[in-house]
């Protein structure tokens, strides 16, 4: 595919791209070295093509750019009703700046509760993923933390996963209610990164309202009688199941660092299908194109693990009962959360999409009947 950037042919490694989103991400990574970012793109004259669209039959991607950051921006911070001036490094992502501020406020049981730029709310995931230098008149309001607002969140995109979620989501909802949490279901793509798995990062927008969030993949059967997972994971830590003892991940860890740069990550690989987070972890979910894994396996999950190591977040390992998959050899009927990842437990294997989801649904229905006495 021919790539044109600001009217000029652009030579870039496309990482064996099969979708428009991968092409965009590869170009975004190359542009970062010149301090520029993508502001718009078109394919064969069609503006804003979907990231998941394939490249077959397409010939030319045209991109326009702008400077990625200003040098320094001043932001107004409202603290206890008084204006204070803070200086933000223009290159720092807004989510990163807010996370630093929240960490400093936490000993006083305070946090950022509103964030605006030129009067408009910027707590959504796309705004929080931009550099501070992108905004004028940036201001935030902080308030006392009164209690712990919680949410359980899942992602459902496409009719096949909706069939699965129709079976599993009611159990997630019941679990949320049992532990004083709201339940949210993300049902529309918004982030536009190359693979739909990244859409779960929309949960970052919810941190404007909630202190703690549990994310659960749509193909997880969660026992409503399970204990309080929020109480088991400290707010400073990411809570997730380390799957590396059940399948070597050394090559994936090495490949990710070869692609994105070396960091202090030599072992441990968390499954992102179930995770517990706090508002302190917003940077983990920034929707930036230039720093996601495009070559290593498990694209979203490997990027997630890379960022946990990059930001130095402490990890609270969840026991297998919180993410029981068929490759870990445990009794799923003794688990709090059964994860039917891929063809897990249902034997759906390499089938066409319709048959795959039919067989997977049938397997989950059987497990519901065995465990709970019916769907």
Write the layout of secondary structure elements.
Blueprint: E1 2-5, E2 8-9, H1 20-32, E3 36-43, E4 46-47, E5 60-67, E6 72-79, E7 82-89, H2 94-105, E8 110-117, E9 120-121, H3 125-128, E10 138-144, E11 150-155, H4 159-178, E12 181-186, E13 212-216, E14 220-222, H5 229-232, E15 238-242, H6 250-260, E16 270-278, H7 299-311, E17 315-317, E18 337-339, H8 353-372
Parallel strand pairs: 1-5, 6-10, 11-12, 11-13, 15-17
Antiparallel strand pairs: 1-2, 3-4, 3-5, 6-7, 8-9, 8-10, 13-16, 14-18, 15-16
SSE string, helix = H, strand = E? EEHEEEEEHEEHEEHEEEHEHEHEEH
Q: What structural class is derived from the secondary structure elements?
A: alpha/beta
Strand order of the largest sheet: 12-11-13-16-15-17
Overall CATH class of the largest domain: Alpha Beta
Q: At the third CATH level, what is the topology name of the largest domain?
A: Spore Coat Polysaccharide Biosynthesis Protein SpsA, Chain A
Largest sheet: 6 strands, mixed
How much beta, percentage-wise?
25-35%
Oligomer: single chain
Provide the helix percentage.
Answer: 25-40%
């Amino acid at each position: 595919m021919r790539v044109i950037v600001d009217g000029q042919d652009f030579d870039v490694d496309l990482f064996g791209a099969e979708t428009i989103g991968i092409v965009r991400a590869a170009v975004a990574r190359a542009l970062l070295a010149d301090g520029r970012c993508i502001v718009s793109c078109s394919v064969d004259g069609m503006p804003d093509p979907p990231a998941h669209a394939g490249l077959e039959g397409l010939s030319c991607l045209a991109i326009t750019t702008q400077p990625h950051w200003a040098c320094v921006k001043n932001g107004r911070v409202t603290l206890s009703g008084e204006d204070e001036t803070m200086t933000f490094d223009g290159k720092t992502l807004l989510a990163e700046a807010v996370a630093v501020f929240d960490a400093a406020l936490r000993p006083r049981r305070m946090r950022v509760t509103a964030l605006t730029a030129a009067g408009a709310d910027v707590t959504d995931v796309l705004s929080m993923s931009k550099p501070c230098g992108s905004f004028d008149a940036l201001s935030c309001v902080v308030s006392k933390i009164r209690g712990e607002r919680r949410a359980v969140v899942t992602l459902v995109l496409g009719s096949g996963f909706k069939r699965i979620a129709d079976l599993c989501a009611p159990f997630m909802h019941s679990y949320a209610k049992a532990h004083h949490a709201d339940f949210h279901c993300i049902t529309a793509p918004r982030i536009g990164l190359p693979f739909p798995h990244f859409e779960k990062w929309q949960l970052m927008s919810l941190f404007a309202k909630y202190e703690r969030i549990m994310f659960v993949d749509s193909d997880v059967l969660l026992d409503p009688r399970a204990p309080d997972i929020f109480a088991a994971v400290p707010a400073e830590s990411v809570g997730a199941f380390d799957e590396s003892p059940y399948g070597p991940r050394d090559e994936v860890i090495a490949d990710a660092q070869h692609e994105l740069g070396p960091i202090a990550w030599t072992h441990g690989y968390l499954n992102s299908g179930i995770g517990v987070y706090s508002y302190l972890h917003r940077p983990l979910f920034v929707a930036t194109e230039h720093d996601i894994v495009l070559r290593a396996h498990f694209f979203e999950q490997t990027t997630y693990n890379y960022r946990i190591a990059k930001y130095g977040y402490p990890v609270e390992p969840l026991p297998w009962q919180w993410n029981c998959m068929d490759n870990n050899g445990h009794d799923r009927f003794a688990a709090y959360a059964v994860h039917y990842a891929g063809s897990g437990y249902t034997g759906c294997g390499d089938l066409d999409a319709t048959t795959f989801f039919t067989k997977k649904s049938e397997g989950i229905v059987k497990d519901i009947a065995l465990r709970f006495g019916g769907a």
